[in-house]
Structure formats: C-alpha cells, structure tokens
Amino acid sequence: MIPLEQFGLAIDTPLVTPSSRSYRPPSFPPPRDWVVVEDAQGNPVSRWGDPIWRFDLWVGAPVCLNFGDGPNNKASSIAHIDQANADLLRLLVTWKLWGPRSPISVRSMISAFFTPFRSIFSLCSREGILASDLMRYSAVREKLPKTLAPSRYDSTVAELHRLLDARQELGFILLDQHGIKDLVNNKPQQHAKKQTAYIPPRIWAYQVNRLHECLNEYIAHQQQVEKCFHFCIDAFARNYGSLSALMSEKKLSSKSPFRVIADRKLASEKGRIHYGHFDDTADKFGLSDLLSRWVGRSNSVGLTRLTSYLSLIQFAGLAYICNFSLMRIEEASSLRLGCLDWEDDEKLGRIPILIGETTKTVQDNDARWPTSPSVQVAIDAMSSVARLRMRCAEQNPVVSPTERDKANPYLYGRSYEPWAPGHITRSYTIRRQIPYYKYVFDSFPNLFDKEKIKITQEDIKIAKLVTPTLNLDEFQVGSTWPLAWHQLRRTGAVNMFASGILSNSSMQYLMKHCNRLMPLYYGKEHTKLCLNNEARDLVLNSMYEVMGKEIQGLLSDRFVSPYGDKRKEMIVVNLVTESDAKRFSESAKRGEISFRSTRIGGCTKREACSYGGYESISHCAGSDGGQPCVYALYDRDKADSNKKYLTSLEKRLLDAPVGSPLRLSLEAEKRGLEEYFDVISSRS
Fold first, then answer.
1. Residue 447 and residue 294 in contact, taking contact as beta carbons nearer than 8 Å
2. Do 99 and 81 contact (CB within 8 A), yes or no?
3. b/e map of 177-189 (b: 16 or more CB within 10 Å)?
4. At CB < 8 A and 24+ separation, what contacts does 166-170 make?
5. CA-CA distance, 344 to 349, in Å (whole number)?
6. pLDDT of residue 356
7. Tens digit of pLDDT for each residue in 345-354?
8. CA-CA distance, 282 to 278, in Å (whole number)?
C-alpha cells in the first residue's frame, strides 16, 4: 500500500493548498463524505460519494464528472451506471487525480481517462456485472473494442496497463495481461482522423475584412459608445438609488429609465427619471446608424441593442485574434487587457506578441504567440468593452471579481449590464462557454453577407487541395461555408507557408507579412520568449504539408522552367520519385526534397536562398544582370496575381527618381515579370 503522503493534487489552482481538505484523500479508498472540491471559503462543493463532481471553480468553466448513479440519471442522455460500478470508477478517478501520476489538467484527465473508462463501466453496468469481474466474462470483453473510441484506443490500452501495475494499491483489476493482449489484437481498423477544413482564400479574406471593418468602426465611435453606456448605467443607478442596489435588486420595469410613460410628472415625484425609448438616447449620442448597421434596426427590446453590439465586438475581436495568432479559441478567450506586448528585435524590428494561458498539453500562464500588428485594433476594441462591463460586474455580489480581475479583466466575458437578457448566476472566475463560430454568424446576421461566403467551384478546388478528406456532403457548391473556430487556426498555419496563392488582396498580403515574422521567431534559438510549442508544431507541419502538395503539382504542366522542358524533367526526376503528397511531405521533413513558394512560382534549391523570392524576383528571373536561376520554376496559376503586381510596379515607376536605387530595383522587377510572362506563354 502506497503511503498517503505520496497522494496529492498536482492541478494548479489557488483554491487548493496542502492544508486544504481536497488536497489529498484522508484514506484510500476515501470515505464517502470526503470533500473532493471546496470553494474559496472552504465550503464543500462536491463530496466523494456524490454522483457528480463539479470542477467549475478549479477550471474556470462549467466542468463536471458524472459517474452515472444519480437519481435522475436514468432520464438523462448520460448512460446510467449502477452504484457499485460507479464507486469503482470513483476509485480509479481518485487514483488518477490524486495518485502518484496525477495530471496537471482536469480537462485532459476527462478526455484521456474518465470518458473512455466511463464507457467500460457503462458496458459492465448494462451487462449486469462488476467491472472488477470483467476477466471472468469473455462475452462482455469481446464487446470492448467496439465500446472504446478509436481515437482513444491506444491511450486507453496504455492506461489499462498502468492500472494493472497498480493492482495491489487499487485492490482490483479490469483486465490482466491476457485481456489487454486480446484488446490490442482486436483493435478496429485504424482510425482515420479527419482534418479540419481549410478556408479558401476568397472566403477567408472576406470574413477577415468584415471583422476588421466592424472593429475599426467601433474604435471610430468608441468615445460615443462609452459615454452612452455610462449615461445609461447612471440613469438606472439613479432610479434604483445606487449602482450597488441596481446590480443586487430584482429588476423592475417601472424603474427603467428607458420606457415610454404617460405621466412623467408622477414618475418625477417618485424621484425617478425617464428618457423615453432608447432610440432617442442612441440618436443623442450619434449611435443610431452604427447600431442599425451592425445589429439591425430598432425593435421592442430597445436598449438590448447596445448589449448585442458590445457582444458582437467581443466576438469579432475574438475571431480576428484567432485568424492571426494560431491560438485555440479557449486560449484566445482567456486573454486579458494587458495581453499584447511588443518585442524589439534587431533584425525584424517591433514584433507584436500575445501573452496568455495555455492548459491543454502544459500548464503555462505566460505562453507567447507572435501575431500581426493589425491585432491591435481587436485588443483595443475588446479592452473598451471589458472595462465597461467590469463597472457592472464589480458591483454584482454574485459575480464578485477579484482585485486582479478588476484591474485587468478578461477581454471576453458575459454581459453584466442590468438590462441584458438572462440572469447572472456564476462568479467571474467561472468563464463563459464559447459558442460555435456558426452561432456568431447566425446571431449577428449583419456581420457577414451569406451570399459572399457561398461556396464556388473554385473554393472547393482549393479547399480539397489542402484538405483531401473534405466532406463534400457538408461543403457543397452553392451552400454557405460552415465557419468554425479551429478552421481559423489551421488556415492561418497553412497560409503562412502558401502565401503565394494568397496575394490577390491586401489581407492575404498581410498574412504573408506574418509569414516573415512568425516562422523566423519560432526558429530563433536565442529568443528570450517561451513560445507556444503546439502552435510552432502546427506551423511546421503545415509547412511540410503545403510543400508536399506543391511538389505533387510539379508533375502537371502548371510549372515550367525558363530553360525548357528537359530542365524541368531533370528537376522532377531529382525531386519527385513517388506519387503521394503525404510521402512528399515526409521527405521534405527529412530534408531529402525541397520546394519553396515564390511570387512567380517555386524554388527547388535545398539550401537557403539569400535572394528572397517573394520580396524580389529579379534573381529568380535573371533580370538583375545574370541568367535565370536554374532552381526556379514558373507557375502559370500565378499569372493573374502577377499581372496586378506588374500594374502596381508601373505605377510606382512613375514616381521613382531616375537613376535612384529604388528605380533600378523596380525596373529589374518589371523585367523579371516580363521574362516570366514570356516563358509561360512560349511554353503553352
């Protein structure tokens, strides 16, 4: 038996210290009344024998473990588990959470341990056996492979082996070595994990531009919005006697200052003020057109339009940050006011860095994400909304934010205004659940035009190129693209290494700018910052994935060499010895082959090129006084974007001083583009 001193909670939460009741069990197995979760005042939240353990205060979001033996569980969608099996499951969870190998995250424990093992105990309960007797019933064991989720099959087998090693401490086993071996031998067909869809450039650019437009308009009207908000709060506070009373008492329509009443004299005699319908106040502060444009025309709810607009700004800012940071939506929603920092780099200049928390794979409340300078507008707009809502939150006894929260609130949170719909029942530490991106789309129909994000044949072509497993039943030509938060994360990573096809608009060029900063910062071994490792891995994997797709394209007539077909054949023979993009990607990771996108096509040189290829093409095309680069290939698909680039060069040449270095550079670029067009037209 392991001494109790070796038990102890590893999850980082200020609510649990070594002196807390919930830090370690008083015995193993614990008594049923042992307090597994307590609040800041030491009051019990969940006890060991409870059907549901609630970890909201630990996680900062609604999170619980349902063991399935509650009185109302039979009527719910959660599978029922009899109490004897539920107690065994509680014992395993106790061992996992407080034992020698305790995890650092409740969420990861739930997904990796509790959920798969709950399915095993649910199977045993349905079959009328104890999970500790599972080895005695071969017919039940045969059902296990189909019970376990394919994505968690291997990790569950590993956990079963760890539990077998701990059989003396636990007092029972689920499967012995033979049972685990049978489970491995009967593993279902390899689980094929579907990739998150890549958003086509046209749709990605549209939603980014609309988000930026929405946020910019808020900044332009920020002072009016803030003054209007404070005016409304002061009006309510006067009618209720104080802001504290306003946030504590039950809301009465008779005390609302924004309603139309027949006898204003009677109202004034009661010490209350009335300004009539909120539309009049919106006009007074010059906000009528702004609110109508983004949340619709006035209706019976009146003042709640202001709340809807503030919530829209939070969502728009959240989406914009995700587009330019590779953050998970949970990470972006945990950012606070002071999250944007600027790092001075001797080579790259000022680099914007987002500072926040990451908890999925490691506990780090000081993780860093390089981002785009344009994210500043999102941070500024969301900061304004957060400060406004904190004025109400700090007066609400239910919300009860800490001093740290008051000084540095979350950028994303609930609506605490007294006129907002719903009733506040959770403290500030319990974070608001994040709705799907589709919810934002549906709830704020003025944000995006459905016609603009309807899928075209060209969208499908590009999306399938990057996501071969794309579900064509869900993504159909003519239907609205189903935006999702994680799509922003994957699309951002892919875009950074495929920016050549994204140069048709200024927003793609802006992402290309991120391409220069972010990978360089990820690769700097001497950096002082601790950058988010998983975001770095996503970037690098996307780089090789895109490289594999581009190399596969070399087999087509899309690419031509300035030295003719024989030179292209030599390049292809040297580079491409297989016919599968996935294997190309693996070869690229090993450094066996290389392909880097340039403005006019691609570079097949394995070593680093000091001439750029995107900022300048003169060396690639030989317009700097030499011959075209032997490693260069020209891409016909980039003709349209390069025609626009040529037009912009010609305009810039009009103002460039004769004989200046700028003019010489622009002329070389122009000659390079003309060489590119000559080659792709002559090789048709």
1. yes
2. no
3. eebbeebeeeeee
4. 166/95, 166/99, 168/1, 169/1, 169/2, 169/28, 169/95, 170/91, 170/92, 170/95
5. 6
6. 85
7. 776 678 888 9
8. 6
Q: Report how far residue 215's alpha carbon sits from residue 72's, in angstroms, rounded to the nearest whole number.
A: 46
- The reported pLDDT for the residue numbered 532 is 57
CA–CA–CA angle 131, 136, 137 (5° rounding): 80
Cα separation, 286 vs 283, whole angstroms: 5
Q: Which amino acid is residue 431, in one-letter code?
A: R
Distance of alpha carbon 238 from alpha carbon 544, whole angstroms = 62
The whole-angstrom separation of Cα 87 and Cα 85 is 5
In tens, the pLDDT along 421-433 reads 777 778 888 888 8
C-alpha–C-alpha distance, residues 513 and 525, integer Å: 21
Residue 449 CB coordination number (10 Å) = 11
> Mean pLDDT lowest for which of 36-45, 348-357, 495-504, 595-604?
495-504
pLDDT at 362: 47
Mean pLDDT of 640-657: 83
d(Cα 294, Cα 290) in Å, to the nearest integer?
Answer: 6
Burial class (CB in 10 A: 0-12, 13-18, 19+), 130: middle
Q: Is the omega angle on the peptide bond into residue 519 within 30 degrees of 0, that is, cis?
A: no
Instruction: Say how many CA atoms lie within 13 Å of 464 toward its Cβ.
Output: 14
